[in-house]
Amino acid sequence: MADSRSTGYEDTYTESQVILTAVKVIAPFTLTYGMFMTLHGADTPGGSFQGGAIIGVTVLMLAFAFGIEPTRQWLKNSVIVSLVAGGVAIFVGVGLATMALGGNFLQYELFDTELGIPDGTKWGMEAIEIGGIALIVAGVVITLFFATAAGFTPEGRSYRTDSTDTDDEVITDD
Amino acid sequence: MSLVAYTLVAFILVTAVATALFRDVLSAIVVFGAYSLGMAILYTLLLAPDVAMTEAAIGAGVTTILLLLTIARTSRPSTERLFEPINVPALVIVGAFVLVLVTQLLPEMYAVGDPAAPVWSNPEVTQAYLEQTYRDTGVQNAVTAVLAAYRGFDTFGEAVVVFAAGIATLLVLKREVFA
Amino acid sequence: MIELLATRYAYLLMFVLLGIGLYMTIASQNLVKKLIGVNLFQTAIFLFFVAVAYVEVDGEPGGSPVVPATENPASSDLILASPLPHVIVLTAIVVGIALTAVGLALIVRIYSEYGTLREDTLREVRADE
């Protein structure tokens, strides 16, 4: 049993009524809790690293309840890419915006003095917390989960495209 | 230090030793999850709720899931014995290492929570952060302030490292899609 | 001696955990268990940072690092744990899981290449090549 290497997900997935019901009840609360932690990290313990991780874990819970492959199809690749890459882009963008205003990288008080946003420092920090770190962490946690779940298959590069790049399969054993 | 803390320390020690000694990898992973949770509670007692939340979500949650997925993807050796045999040379080396640390380094350290310890009493680091956080940034959680404002560039580096590690995992597994 | 150990319990725990983590990376033949050992070693270092940041005055623990919402707080309100080590540990945990995942991906690749996760078997297979 330990040596049976499975290539898909369906054979390892068994629908459990207990897990399904529990996740259906808990998942909305976990998502809310993760977002609360992210959005309210300025004044209470918590913050974007924790909140992002909990938002990512919500997707992991869904994958455990409904099967990894259905969750993967429901959650499009472009969503994850935009989470991860968008997070980095927002973080860099905020940093470069302060440089464009004539200051240093991430010099938030320029939002206040140059653009006239009240509490500019606070909103600049919230921008990189919510828009930057939380998105990156949530996206990377989901990415790591799906990548590890897929494992390594030398022939098929991904489960979604199984007809493309066949030249990878030409393996000569000399 | 209360009875709760003593119990937690004992719990952490037992789970850590069990993680090292269990021969079955699945048992070791599950016990390691319990260890991380105990560690998270100890962080809460040591006044670090932010760290505790991260450890509970990531250490006890995500790490355990990734380890379980890995042994599901590879192999889990069948075992008859419950514990691994003790590797005596490794135990001697590690024992000497711990002995040197405990006898030579421990008496030189400040007591846990001593306000005279340099980390806490330094007027230019900790005290400055605590005094100026609200004035400078307008947020109350000093951890968030240090993370996003005072050491924002550092955090930028960390975020990019996390991003790069995600990409590296995909590269190692030769995958071209994130999900 | 007992006094010394009781007041420095967190550091003592850290040293023992460092030892256990090191033992796992050296003695365990299974690559997954080696990686768990690295993680254990890592949490011991986190414990050191968190214990260093902790503060108590006359046996009364201070507060978590959430400062009062005033421009000039009284110093009696500022008996709070140091935020800087917390930040370092916070980011280190997230970076740690990402690096653990890279290690696990490498383990999956090693398994698909050599069909084993045991270090001694792996050495033999590689010596035969």
Describe this entry's structure for a reader.
Chain A is built from six helices and no strands. With 174 residues, chain A is an all-alpha fold. Chain B has two domains: 93 residues, NADH-ubiquinone/plastoquinone oxidoreductase chain 6, subunit NuoJ (Four Helix Bundle (Hemerythrin (Met), subunit A), Up-down Bundle); 70 residues, no CATH class. In chain B, 72% of the residues lie in helices and 0% in strands. Chain C is mainly alpha-helical and 129 residues long. Chain C is built from five helices and two strands. In chain C, helix 2 runs antiparallel to helix 3. Chain C starts with a helix and ends with a helix. Chains in contact: A-B, A-C, B-C. At the B-C interface, helix 1, helix 2, helix 3, helix 4 and helix 6 of B face helix 1, helix 2, helix 3, strand 1 and helix 4 of C.
List keywords for this structure.
heterotrimer; A: 174 residues; mainly alpha; 6 helices; disordered N terminus; disordered C terminus; B: 179 residues; Four Helix Bundle (Hemerythrin (Met), subunit A); 2 domains; 8 helices; globular
Topology:
The complex is a heterotrimer of chains A (about 170), B (about 180) and C (about 130).
Chain A: H1 17-39, H2 48-66, H3 68-74, H4 77-100, H5 109-113, H6 120-150
Chain B: H1 3-21, H2 25-45, H3 49-73, H4 88-105, H5 118-121, H6 126-137, H7 142-150, H8 152-172
Helix pairs in contact in B: 1-2, 2-3, 6-7, 7-8
Chain C: H1 2-7, H2 9-27, H3 31-53, E1 56-57, E2 60-61, H4 83-114, H5 119-128
Antiparallel strand pairs in C: 1-2
Protein name (chain C): Cation:proton antiporter subunit C
InterPro entries (chain C): CPA3_antiporter_subunitC, NUOK/Mnh_C1-like
Keywords (chain C): Membrane, Transmembrane, Transmembrane helix
